[in-house]
Amino acid sequence: MSEILEIKSIRCGYEGTIVVNDFTLSLADTTQSCLLGPSGCGKTTVLRAIAGFERITRGEIILNGRVISSKDTQIPPEHRGIGMVFQDYALFPHLSVADNVAFGLRKQGKMKQRKVAEEMLELVGLEDHAGHYPHELSGGQQQRVAVARALAPKPPLLLMDEPFSNLDSDLRERLLLDIHEILRQRQTTTLFVTHDQEEAFIIGDHIAVMNDGYIKQWDTPYNLYHEPTNRFVADFIGQGRLIGGVLASHESVQTSLGLLAGNRSYEWPPETRVDVLLRPDDVLLGVDEGVECLITDRHFKGAQIMYTLRTPGGDELLSLVPSHFDIDIGQKVKAAVDAEHLVIFRQ
Amino acid sequence: MARVNLPILKITTVMLAMVVVLPLLVVFSGWMQSENLVWEHLLRTVLGDLLKNTAWLLLGVGIGVTILGVGLAWLTTRCEFPCRRIFDWALMLPLAVPAYVMAFVALGLLDYTGPVQTGLRETLGSNNFWFPEVRSTGGVITVMTLVLYPYVYMLARSSFITQGNSTVEAARSLGLSAWGAFFRVSIPTARPAIVAGVSLALMEALADFGAVAIFNYDTFTTAIYKAWFGLFNLQAASQLASFLLILAVIALTAERQLRGKAKYHEATRSTNVYRYHLAGWHRWGALFIVSLISLLAFIVPIIQLSIWAWGVLSEDMDGRYIGLLLHTLMLGGMAAGLTVISAMVLAFTRRTHSDFLVRGSVNIATLGYALPGSVLAVGVMLTFTSIDNVLTTMATLIGWQSPGQILTGSVFALVMAYMVRFLAVAYGPIESGLCRIRVGIAEAARGLGDSPLFTLWRVYLPLLRPGLFTAGLLVLVDVMKEMPATMLLRPFGWDTLAVRIYEMTSEGEWERAALPAITLILVGLIPVIVLVRRSAIYQGRN
């Protein structure tokens, strides 16, 4: 797979405040990637820099081998050919749905325009709404039109800025899956911005977790969850708690839950103070061999129950267990760790 | 909704509609008893010129306010340049300057004897330089454009703010240049607002009497005045008025048509507004343009008026001035009171008794803003004259002494004319205030045992207070500035500031018109400040 987009240590910002700094990322052709981070982390700024709405003051952005942004050159957005879907859809209120979709096809003949618009509307399931105006559509339908409009000129790269944040959760998931499928079928390289990790997990082959203008980790969803390389990612992705401990050997850690060991070794010398990340699915309850912990909170979730526990050493833990395992708050229960590998950070 | 049935409200509403319609019918009825002589005379002599002048005026002002209003709104909402925040509201201030004040300041400054030409002559040491003719079509158009562009500016500005710029960015990511996006997306989306603003400006231009009179630029309003006071020919005045009325109706219909077709809601409401950070000479260019307009349309007139007023302050700030001010305020106050009460009746009836008759009556009763003051004055005058005639006949029949003219030339006639003209001005804020009061609140009051009238008193009035205040203020200021209706209908001894300005300027005594002019601008600034603050709150919410 070749690289379609290369972002080389760019910096963006205005008048003294740097919003994004030393940001580097490459997107492989036909992949779907995601920028994930809390609001204000600079992810939208990166997207707007790629689209050409934001200047960069350092580094360069290269699309298909052509420098589109650098300190000195700034190719205007209309000459980049990059598709974009906006958070508020940004449909043109004075144009019908079909005219919205055909907007980016001005250089083609009228017949061709109409044909493409029809195809695109069929693709997003709105062929019956071609003559309607944006304000006559629901939020989800407007979103589909926005996607159809951005895809119509067959852009080499599609950018999506929090495109599902204005929809209610039910609709959001269905639309997300539909659009994911459309993008995969058409093999459109996509970069997607969101603050919602579930969205990111569904759509992203690769995800860049961002904070404070930097990339914290660029990885697959599986690795972000199971192999976070820093505390921010460990905390931001998924649930879990860090508990304190001391390296007993290169392979094991002594904690308030006993001696824990995974299938890998650590380079730090023994006696190093560390924190161990324990996900709710790493902690088993009601086992024969274990440390007795106090249940301090519980949330019933249907098939499972999420328990909050306190170890004798005072550390807090989360445990997600099947819902037939039913214990009241204030009871004690034996807990043990079952993890293939341990994620450890030096204190 | 709780059923309310108060026939008195319905009857009053229908009567208000009739009060608006009657003068108009009377204006047209002038044709029925027309002596063809007058008509032929008009046709032969002035009509062609009047139509030509009016057409040029509307065309010029229409193009001028569109370019200036839309361009400035785009600069202050979409671009970032030094002092942008100040100019964002400062550009609305010329709304407080009546067109006739702007007109005489421009003449006083730029005339042969004015400071500009005198200064040029002294610097150049000769008379041999080209200077544009001030008393010209271009001059009138420029003056009117400078005072009327804020209508377009304000409406276009709020439309650009609600649009946000993501549609522009979407257009650019789909291959349009910045200018292409502006013309193909921003402008079409803002079209209803722009059309509304331009037509407001054109109706003002059509109704203007003072500015064109000062420039000796003959339009229907000045012709009506001449026919009335110069020839004492009410017949001719009413026929001219009916022409002006037809033009106003055409303008109004055109506006409704243009706006009605394009009634799209803002489909999206943008949360982020990114502005173009103008760089290099663009920054200073933008600053130069907005400063130039602010200077020409507001700062220079204020300074010049202050200088003139200062020079005559000791002699003009006397009992006479106080008298003028008092008359102006009294007329404005009476008109504001009557208009606000009438507008409230309309709005309340519309809400509680909405049927075909009521809706139609309200629509008619609020048409007045499109009616030029001169037309109304002629209509009201003719109406009251006929009523007086009927009264006289009846009195003679039953053997009483003729009461003479009770209504004609009375303060009552003038206040009625004001009310008809400004009913829509008061109706707007009251109606929108009423819309914000949910039906449930009134129902709750009635559920707790209040009668409908008592509900009005205890629930609606307190909640409507801000709307009523705005409505009253707007009417007061508009009445104080109104020139033609006051000129034509004022009873003997009821001169106002506007009348004084006309009298002084028609003799070329700019200095002596300055003090009343400054007074009117200061009063006019109050509602503008209210508007500016409201738009600031509005923008803060975005």
What is the mean predicted local confidence, pLDDT of chain A?
89
Distance between the termini of chain A: 39 Å
- What is the approximate shape of chain A? globular
Give the H and E element order of chain B.
Answer: HHEHHHHHHHHHEHHHHHHHHHH
Residue share in helices of chain B? over 70%
Sum this structure up briefly.
Chain A is α+β, with helices and mostly antiparallel strands. Chain A contains eight helices and 20 strands.
Structure description:
The complex is a heterodimer of chains A (347) and B (542). Chain A is an alpha+beta fold and 347 residues long. In chain A, the strands form 4 sheets. In chain A, strands 6-7-8-3-9-10 form a 6-stranded mixed β-sheet, with helices on both faces. In chain A, helix 3 packs across helix 4. With 542 residues, chain B is mainly α. Chain B has a single domain, classed as MetI-like (MetI-like fold), CATH 1.10.3720.10. Chain B has a two-stranded parallel sheet with strand order 1-2. Classes of the chains: A alpha+beta (347), B mainly alpha (542).
Salient structural properties:
heterodimer, A: 347 residues, alpha+beta, six-stranded mixed β-sheet, five-stranded antiparallel β-sheet, B: 542 residues, mainly alpha, MetI-like fold
Topology readout:
The complex is a heterodimer of chains A (347) and B (542).
Chain A: E1 3-14, E2 17-28, E3 32-36, H1 43-51, E4 58-63, E5 66-70, E6 83-85, H2 97-102, H3 110-123, H4 139-151, E7 157-161, H5 169-185, E8 189-194, H6 197-203, E9 206-211, E10 214-219, H7 221-226, H8 231-236, E11 241-247, E12 252-255, E13 258-261, E14 273-278, E15 283-285, E16 291-300, E17 304-310, E18 316-322, E19 332-337, E20 343-346
Parallel strand pairs in A: 3-8, 3-9, 6-7, 7-8
Antiparallel strand pairs in A: 1-2, 1-4, 4-5, 9-10, 11-12, 11-14, 12-13, 14-20, 15-19, 16-17, 16-19, 17-18
Chain B: H1 7-29, H2 36-78, E1 79-80, H3 84-90, H4 99-110, H5 115-124, H6 137-163, H7 166-173, H8 178-207, H9 210-214, H10 220-230, H11 234-261, E2 276-277, H12 281-316, H13 319-352, H14 356-365, H15 373-397, H16 411-435, H17 439-447, H18 452-481, H19 484-489, H20 497-506, H21 510-541
